[in-house]
Design goal:
With about 325 residues, the protein is mainly beta. It has two domains: about 40-165, OB fold (Dihydrolipoamide Acetyltransferase, E2P), CATH 2.40.50; about 175-335, Jelly Rolls, CATH 2.60.120.260. The chain has helices at about 1-20, 50-55, 80, 115-120, 255-260; strands spanning about 60-70, 80-85, 95, 110, 135-145, 145-160, 165, 175-180, 190-195, 200-205, 210-215, 215, 220, 225-230, 240-250, 260-265, 280, 295, 300, 310-320, 325-335. Strands 1, 2, 3, 4, 5, 6 and 7 form a seven-stranded antiparallel β-sheet that branches. Strands 8, 10, 11, 15, 18, 19 and 21 form a seven-stranded antiparallel β-sheet that branches. The longest helix has 21 residues, at about 1-20. The radius of gyration is 26 Å and the shape is elongated.
């Protein structure tokens, strides 16, 4: 495939040279314009190119490039087993580059294809026609195969074609945005009642979300714990809305009182009881019986636009009769 593309490029150049030779010798050749370098911001509307993604590791961002091959071999060594022509045998990754004809692994960007829609839609074993296609991806920019790459890829758009995965919320212009991709951010955990035999309820999980549970050593424990946002300034906001993704498993009949969302305009620090809190309604809930994340739906915060110290809190409670597991991530407050 890449041999054919190179042939046509060379053939086209040869024709152009012949035509120039046959033209009038006193005609000045048109100068070749200097390409204007592009600068991406890692956003959906302005994604990083491969060079930019390589030098801007450490966060979840949008990246665009051409699918050019696969790290394809038993040893999975990018320096010796990068393959740029079909047939391919490995479905777990693809290589991206800024040039559709790239065959130098040092100029390539390895992308992890997690199980599911991303792997099904992008792997070159089952989707050979994507070789050389331009694609836009969203994922975590981090080391993959010992070089800068993308892991936990969650969404893709083929240029002029298919899409797949879960499209992230654009956080540009947000008043607060936290993915929990690397830690709990500026959120504070306040334990009111620790479960018997436990040292925590809420914690940041390495799977990149906040998680609460009071199921310890095979039994349900009574607990109460809050995870509270940093101060949010909504004094210049017009119609801000909160969204997040959450999962809920082992739900009890007390869900509406045990997994709840709150807002305050006078909390500063310490025990939640030192402030006034108003409960917010979460429009969309997970099934309560699996680990599938769903969007919360938009939660209106326009009643708090005159305030410069708005706090959001996820309150988890449990009893000896039941202790669910609640997880959330990708929280955004924006217009």
């Amino acid at each position: 495939m890449k041999t054919k593309k190179t042939f046509f490029k060379v053939f086209g150049v040869a024709i152009a040279v012949a035509l120039l030779g046959a033209s009038c010798t006193n005609v000045e050749p048109t100068p070749t314009p200097t390409p204007t370098p592009t600068t991406g911001a890692g956003t959906e509307s302005s994604p990083y190119n491969i060079s930019e993604a390589t030098t801007n590791q450490g966060a979840s961002k949008w990246v665009t490039g051409y699918i050019v091959g696969v790290v394809d071999g038993e040893g999975m060594d990018i320096s010796t087993e990068s393959k740029f022509d079909a047939p391919y045998t490995i479905k777990t990754n693809v290589l991206l580059a800024d040039n559709a004809d790239e065959t130098d692994f040092t100029k390539c960007f390895p992308v992890q294809l997690p199980t599911g829609a991303i792997r099904d839609g992008l792997n070159l074993v089952d989707n050979a026609t994507l070789d050389g296609q331009k694609v836009k991806l969203y994922g975590s920019l981090e080391t993959y195969y010992t070089k800068p790459g993308m892991k936990s890829t969650s969404y893709f758009e083929i240029d002029g074609g298919a899409t797949g995965g879960i499209k992230p919320v654009d956080t540009s212009g947000s008043y607060l945005a936290e993915t929990f991709a690397t830690n709990q951010g500026a959120f504070t955990i306040v334990d009111v009642t620790l479960p018997e035999g436990g040292t925590y309820v809420w914690k940041w999980d390495a799977m990149k979300f906040m998680k609460a549970s009071a199921y310890i050593s095979g039994s349900n424990k009574a607990s109460e714990s809050w995870v509270i946002s940093p101060s949010i300034d909504l004094s210049d906001a017009t119609a801000p809305k909160l969204t997040f993704e959450h999962a809920l498993n082992y739900v009890t009949s007390n869900q509406l009182t045990e997994q709840t969302l709150w807002v305050s305009t006078n909390y500063t620090e310490g025990a939640p009881s030192t402030a006034t809190w108003t409960q917010l309604t979460i429009p969309t809930w997970p099934s309560g019986s699996d680990w599938t994340f769903v969007s919360s739906g938009a939660i209106d915060l326009s009643a708090y636009t005159a305030n410069s110290n708005v706090r959001l809190a996820f309150k988890y409670a449990s009893t000896t009769a039941g202790a669910a597991t609640w997880e959330f991530k990708n929280l955004v407050v924006k217009e």
